[in-house]
TrEMBL record, chains A, B:
Its EC number is 6.3.4.19. Residues 379-453 form the Lysidine-tRNA(Ile) synthetase C-terminal domain. The gene is tilS. GO terms for cellular component: cytoplasm. Belongs to the tRNA(Ile)-lysidine synthase family. InterPro entries: Lysidine-tRNA-synth_C (IPR012796), Rossmann-like_a/b/a_fold (IPR014729), TilS/TtcA_N (IPR011063), tRNA_Ile_lys_synt (IPR012094), tRNA_Ile_lys_synt_N (IPR012795). This is tRNA(Ile)-lysidine synthase. It is an enzyme of class 6 (ligase). One of its GO terms (biological process) is tRNA modification. It catalyses: cytidine(34) in tRNA(Ile2) + L-lysine + ATP = lysidine(34) in tRNA(Ile2) + AMP + diphosphate + H(+). GO terms for molecular function: ATP binding; tRNA(Ile)-lysidine synthase activity. It is found in: Cytoplasm. Gene3D superfamilies: HUPs (3.40.50.620). Pfam families: ATP_bind_3, TilS_C.
Length: 463, 463
């Protein structure tokens, strides 16, 4: 009966095929021992993996021995690893729970890759779904915190996770263990949440189950609806993002005029900017700032947002990368035959040609025509520095690069990523912006160095 | 302090203006008595309304007296009504709770309209939000069951509902009542839910509050996120509906080819068809039917859906109204000068003109050119009946109307709404479909009756 449901659930949700080898994450607790027994009794191909987190001394070691003995009994491959979780957590400055999860899943993913397992199976069940949902609801959440645990999920490290006992409640698994006299150890996972989950398990869930005896039948449908709703929300978020954003150099710009007419703009902006490290509090402040004059700046660990006015007069939010400005120096000792990759930031192509009779300076500032005889090797390419100065083409005096970039009304990120070409310590070209008067093509010029700048884009078109 | 929060909440959510007269729904219980006191102490313009549901005999009557005395004390207008709720519920075949809600809100809406109150205020608070959310979660729900109670809401009867004490928890209201020695009666509303709500209140909510002492601060944000998510889901549902549907006469058609590639089609279809009275179980079956041959029919109280194949060969779901076919007969005794409205179903315009030399029969079947001399008054317009027959233009013999409509591969709804024009008990035109041979324009015709049919659409373009 339970075996039938188990097989039915695997097939219905296409968790894995009958010839697939599945790696089971086995703590030795009730849930994972019942899952393993179900794999065994239904003749699936499987192996067992156990992580010793070294968090409960001899008890942890005894868990490992217990699971290993079971694997020998079943006659299946067994994988064991031991982590000094507490030390690693301290070293990385994260919680023990988070460290345990990271260590566990990255080891499982490695095992799947190296040993060719089709997927990793964990023993999550219906109570886990409800408890997680209630816990998230209690602590504050959005849709993502309510959508439960998926039967099948591909992780970003491309490992595939399956939950083949998600069809059952904890008490159904306990009943199965009792009927088959299955031994198991007390579950040691989720130590930090354990107290909260126990409170929910013993005090909250029984009341809900009393109010709706069909709770375990309605719950999966509720969760499925919320998961579907989340997909539609994501669709609408992606659609409206592409409608609103304007690419601005290497940054993106969200015009206030478009933002402020969007329904639920607070929610949208928070969702859009979350991947860039901004919190809800900040996005609320950004929206508030739009009703004041420009200039306010908001920073996340990786990005910054400025309430800014662009050259076309439009105001809005400018999203720029705070990517550390790379320090590098590229030296050219001869004219290159191939495009030069400059520290992964951009490429330059250089062609040296005879000056045509009808020479005209280029219109596009990404292309520089310089006097080739005037450029002597070595040439240096590096980011500009405070204090750098040069005489721009057509100007009488010298100018600080910082003033030039300010005058050009560039964004902070654009200013930061500006690079110069030097010849004998003199700036010949503020790359992509302006050439130096001394290196211009004159009537005496015989050969022209045509240098072209190709930038890569920092931002994706949509989140 | 509480008064400040109260005023702040009203302003922030723009519930009503300082000159607006607000009608308070007052049961006499803790929540509504505190709300009333807050209105009084902050000098708002208000009136009180109490409903006696006659559900607890003398106790109900005592509640009414208690509230009335309070209104006199405050010196504000008081409105009272008494319903025999149990009898009305039995008569309408609905639950007492539903009857109480219907009676209460329709009376409040009437009062607002007649007496010019700007809005109706109810005393919902934060615990109501959490309890409703948990109750819906327990019983099974979608996003709509989790989005809480809005601070301000316009009802379909155009009454405006406000919840000015939604900023407070039940215990904050109780503390306020204690401090100000406010008397109140045991709340009698929500009788059916009372047991469930009490269980949640005493056993579940305290555990959640222990797990997150900031629960009452995070809850409104969670609810706000879910409400915003719901708006985005609705936007995406409306957008994809217009992308998928094809208008087909008076019905709409959902092509299988477009449906089956939609992400989360099960969820979408259920949401789209809910307003037409179909349940989730049915929509799942409809999707299943698409992988079989056409013909399966699904009915709701007002509509039917057929897995059908259209004339262009496309298969899909055809949504038709089951609106009862109206019975009517329109008699014309002379040529009309104005368009004729036929029982609100469609209009006919009739022009009688000299036959042009270069006469060509119309291509559009919604226009009939008939021999005006052949049409003698009275003319009758009525729905076709089983047994009706005529000789279609160009055919040798007579044909049953039912056979003609079947041959034309019309939908059930289109067949049902087909109407005929009769002259001396003979069918001259199956309106919008085919004219009768005997009434055609011949070489002998001198005047032509040009009759044009204008249908109205039954379905909106999007839900």
């Amino acid at each position: 009966m339970v075996e039938q449901e188990f097989l039915g659930y695997i097939n219905e949700n296409r968790l894995f095929g009958s010839m697939d080898r599945v790696l089971l994450a086995v703590s030795g607790g009730l849930d994972s021992m019942v899952m393993t027994e179900l794999f065994y009794r239904t003749n699936q191909l499987f192996a067992m993996a156990h992580v010793n987190f070294s968090l409960r001394g001899a008890e942890s070691d005894a868990d490992a021995v217990f699971v290993q003995n079971k694997a020998e009994q079943y006659g299946v491959p067994f994988h064991l690893i031991r982590f000094d979780t507490a030390a690693i957590a301290a070293e990385r400055g994260i919680s023990i729970q988070m460290a345990a999860r990271d260590l566990r899943y990255s080891w499982f993913a490695d095992l799947c890759r190296q040993q060719g397992y089709a997927c990793l199976a964990t023993a999550h069940h219906k109570n886990d779904v409800l408890e997680t949902l209630l816990l998230n609801l209690t602590r504050g959440t959005g849709l993502a915190g309510l959508h439960g645990i998926a039967p099948k999920q591909e992780r970003s490290d491309s490992a595939v996770l399956v939950r083949p006992v998600l069809f059952a409640t904890r008490s159904q698994l306990a009943e199965y263990a009792r009927v088959h006299a299955l031994p198991y150890r007390e579950d040691s996972s989720n130590a930090d949440d354990k107290y909260a989950r126990n409170r929910l398990r013993h005090h909250v869930v029984p009341v809900l189950n009393e109010l709706n005896p069909g709770l375990w039948q309605t719950l999966p449908r509720t969760v499925e609806r919320l998961r579907a709703a989340e997909t539609l929300v994501d669709t609408e978020l992606a659609r409206s993002w592409t409608e609103v954003v304007v690419q601005h150099g290497q940054s993106v710009f969200l015009p206030a005029a478009k933002l402020l007419i969007l329904p639920e703009v607070t929610f949208r902006l928070a969702a859009w900017l979350k991947p860039f490290g901004f919190g809800e509090e900040q996005t609320n402040q950004m929206l508030d700032s739009l009703s004041r004059s420009v200039g306010q700046v908001f920073a996340s660990p990786t990005h910054q947002i400025t309430h800014d006015r662009l050259a076309d007069g439009n105001t809005g939010l400018l999203l720029e990368s705070l990517q550390a400005v790379p320090k590098y120096e590229v030296t050219l000792t001869d004219w290159p035959d191939m495009p030069i990759d400059v520290a992964g930031q951009f490429t330059l192509t250089i062609d040296v040609v005879d000056k045509p009779i009808d020479f005209r300076p280029p219109v596009d500032s990404r292309i520089a025509f310089l006097d080739a005889e005037r450029l002597t090797f070595p040439l240096i390419i590096r980011p500009w520095k405070q204090g750098d100065r040069f005489r721009p083409l057509g100007l009488r005096g010298h100018k600080l690069i910082s003033d030039l970039l300010n005058d050009m009304k560039l964004t902070r990120s654009e200013r930061q990523h500006t690079v110069v070409l030097l010849c004998e310590s003199q700036i010949a070209w503020v790359i992509g912006r302006r050439i130096a008067h001394a290196f211009r093509v004159t009537q005496q010029t015989r050969h022209i160095a045509k240098i072209e700048f190709h930038a890569s884009r920092l931002y994706p078109k949509s989140t």
